[in-house]
Q: What sequence folds into this?
């Protein structure tokens, strides 16, 4: 096995710390492969000094089995991690104590996504029960419902200043909320009704979303107008991220990782094809 490739069991989470340009995670059966590639070179980086830790999820009543994990989020301080999945719980892992310290049980169905707000004092979770919940991460005493949607919420993203929250799911409407007031800031019409990917640009002026159609649509946040749209993939877009220079990195069920923009009038660049569906992409800027 390459030094940059680690395998995960379906019900385990691998926490990795590394410095690289791009990471993409692919799901194949009961395992996932974490692969790091350099965008400019387009090749595997085989000299990374990985520090890895496997954290076993914990089964809780009434199922008493380890959940299938569908979302994780580290708080900005690195002290806590939220883990969500098909057990309907929000499980909080404390790194100092090296154990799960809280199991939050206010969702009534599969929890799909969790994100700490920049600053770390709050966590937002959502999923199949269509509820968008805000938690105070200082004491985990309970949640406040921001909204309830007509359909399941699959993913969410904060703007970098923490002022706005964007959501996507199993409907054609994406939404941007004002975090301070909890009010709906702007609804947006998506290209399809099965959307998994959402991200703000580095300057928070635009937001991009993608889903089953393989299209990626970008809106101007202030006006709500469509700024650009392009066919990124042949199958469902699973994840997308803006690079600091405005380009968009995306991955898909079609086993490809694509790079486009920032003006989107050039052909979309495709990284070497993977051997499994690509479910998550992330980017780091090397020091």
A:
């Amino acid at each position: 096995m390459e030094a940059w490739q680690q395998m995960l069991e379906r019900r385990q989470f691998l926490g990795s710390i590394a410095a690289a340009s791009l990471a993409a995670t692919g799901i194949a059966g009961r395992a996932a492969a974490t692969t790091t590639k350099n965008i400019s070179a387009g090749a595997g980086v085989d000299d990374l000094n990985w520090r890895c830790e496997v954290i076993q999820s914990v089964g809780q009543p009434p199922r008493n089995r380890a959940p299938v994990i569908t979302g994780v989020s580290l708080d900005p301080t690195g002290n806590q991690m939220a883990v969500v999945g098909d057990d309907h719980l929000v499980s909080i892992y404390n790194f100092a104590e090296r154990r799960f310290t809280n199991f939050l049980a206010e969702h009534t169905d599969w929890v799909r996504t969790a994100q700490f707000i920049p600053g770390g004092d709050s966590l937002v979770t959502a999923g199949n029960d269509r509820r968008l919940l805000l938690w105070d991460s200082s004491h985990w005493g309970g949640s406040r419902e921001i909204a309830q949607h007509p359909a399941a919420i699959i993913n969410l993203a904060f703007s970098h200043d923490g002022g706005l929250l964007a959501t996507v799911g199993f409907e054609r409407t994406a939404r941007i909320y004002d975090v301070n007031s909890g009010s709906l800031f702007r609804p947006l019409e998506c290209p399809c009704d099965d959307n998994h990917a959402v991200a703000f640009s580095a300057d928070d002026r635009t937001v991009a979303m993608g889903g089953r159609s393989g299209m990626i649509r970008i809106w101007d946040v202030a006006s709500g107008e469509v700024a650009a749209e392009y066919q990124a993939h042949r199958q469902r877009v699973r994840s997308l991220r803006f690079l600091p220079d405005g380009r968009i990195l995306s991955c898909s069920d079609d086993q490809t990782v694509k790079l486009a923009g920032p003006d989107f009038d050039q052909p979309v660049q495709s990284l070497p094809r993977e051997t499994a569906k690509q479910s998550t992409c992330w980017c780091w800027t090397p020091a």
Q: What stands out?
A: The mean pLDDT is 82. The first strand starts at residue 6 and ends at 9.
